[in-house]
Amino acid sequence: MSAESTHHDDSNYLNATSGFKSWFWSVDHKRLGIMYLATILSFFLIGGTFALLVRYELLDAAPTFSASNYNRAFTLHGAIMVFLVLVPAIPASLGNFLIPLMLGAKDVAFPKLNRLSYHIYLFGAFFFVTTLVLGGVDTGWTFYTPYSSKYGTNVITALTGAFILGFSSILTGLNFIVTIHKMRAPGMTWTKMPLFLWAMYATSLIQVLATPVIAVTLVLLMVERFLGIGIFDPALGGDPVLFQHFFWFYSHPVVYVMILPAFGVISETITIHSRKHIFGYVAIAGSSVAIAAVGFLVWGHHMFLSGQSETMGAIFSFITFGVAVPTAIKVCSWIATLYKGNIRWNTVMMYTLGFLWIFTIGGLTGLPLATLSTDVHLHDTYFVVAHFHYTMMGGVLFALITGIYHWWPKMTGKMFSEKAGVPIAIFAFLAYNLTFIPQFIAGHRGMPRRYHEYLPQFEGMMQLSSLGSFLFGLSLFAVLFNLIHSLLKGEKAPQNPWQGLSLEWETATPPIEHNFEGQPICTHGPYEFPDIDVKERVAAK
Fold first, then answer.
1. Which helix or strand (DSSP H or E) is residue 111 part of?
2. Domain residue extents for the chain
């Protein structure tokens, strides 16, 4: 891949204009990606604080907080993490920053719509902040009826925030789909696109198709709560299981809105930092689309114990096992890529390998939950909590940190400390496993989730889990310190520090305002490392 010319002065997207207004009203996809990242990390701090409060409460079998305060803590933790952090984490931040650069485009297809998406995100987040100020919400992040339609506090405010956030997700997805279809550089066929773009394309399809379902569901819930019309409340002639169907029809596909971009990040980092062509490019790209499609058909595995028929349970169980196949294709392809690769044991690779372990554990523990007979035992226990956090929280978070470190030089023009980054990554990995492995054990032994008071026999496991959570929180602050230190005292980054072959590495570091001086031309695939390395060695001789 090549560009027509190279940028030589110091002007870039960071210093092209200055001031809060120039950033807040910017249509530059790179600035919007950075603002999304900063905002999402801010809400992650809030959601993480509530998580630590929950873990503090569970240090002792006897209650420390009141039941209502505990309910508010884990509800706000879950709602903030899902709606404000995990769903937009990679698509809105890294996706916004990288998609046009990887395509060889000057911006996304609809820059003003992109800016509107961010402002809508802020507006929706405002309602969640309002909920915090008003005393929180205590329905659980799933907002299950009839509790959320009859009881609970500040439910309408939280539902309004989630409803508004859906528009941001839909508009972002539409923008990315059009951008990938229409703005690829000359020579970039579908089979020459970086796998991160394939992951974002599949993610965008889910955002556009699934999000309207939850939007309508939230509106119906607010109508029932305001007007007393029986939609979900059985006392009014409604059906609470209907709410679960609507909720999980959206919420299981949205799992892949969280994790598919993470897959895309790992596909990029694992091949670049092993200097080896990705194994099974077509299979990985196709599996992203397959996961997006099949993900719409498995929502019922969340409802094995909600009164659905055994026949439907068996069907959903079978399809759930089916969605594991394209996921396994990715994991096996990544491992095959590592095999006999020239692996760089740097910070990026440490987090990449951490993701492989954490997500694999999360995926494998999903199989007992997809099995009717074992789910009866494990349903609504801490086994489910651990599985979810290994798959979603751990998978997304480790991939997000991987992506931040990998593209940090391109985003900021500064290199971070590898001496600090590697041990921090190892420490974070150990702390994360210390947090959630005990929850698997406790859940298998029967400890229910969502309880602030529990039997003393589970106290040891819960104390280990809480200790791990505090250590993991410490590791995240260490990551933040490493990145801030790089901004202040880090070495200037070269244009292509990792010797990547995709188009974002052809731009200046940091990129100029409109990305490229001339129109880049795609002349080879993004992962042809053996061929490129041989050519470079021959040229050097």
1. helix 111-133
2. 20-540
> Can the peptide bond before residue 146 be classed as cis, meaning omega within 30 degrees of 0?
yes
State the virtual CA torsion across 85, 257, 194, 337 in degrees, nearest 10.
Answer: 90
State the Cα–Cα distance between residues 398 and 404, nearest whole angstrom: 10
CB 159 within 8 A of CB 222: yes
CA dist., res. 442 & res. 440, Å (int): 6
Output b/e per residue, 412-439; b: 16+ Cβ within 10 A: bbbebbbebbbebbebbbebbbbbbbbb
pLDDT single digits (tens) 309-323: 889 999 999 999 998
Q: Which two tokens stand for residue 273?
A: 């930092």
Read out DSSP for 292-318? HHHGGG-GGGG-TTTT--HHHHHHHHH
How long is the chain? 541
The CA distance from 203 to 442, in Å, is 34
pLDDT over 70 (residue 197): yes
- Find residue 381's DSSP bridge partners: 448
Provide DSSP, 451-467.
-SS--GGGHHHHHHHHH
Q: At what angle do helices 459-489 and 418-444 cross, to 10 degrees?
A: 160
Q: Which CATH superfamily is domain 20-540 in?
A: Cytochrome c oxidase-like, subunit I domain (1.20.210.10)
How do residues 329-344 score in pLDDT, each as one tens digit? 999 999 999 998 889 9
Closest listed residue to residue 257, CA positions, set 288, 213, 302, 280: 288
- The answer to whether the bond into 510 is cis (omega within 30° of 0) is yes
Distance CA 316, CA 304 (A): 9
Task: Please state the rounded mean pLDDT for residues 178-196.
Answer: 95
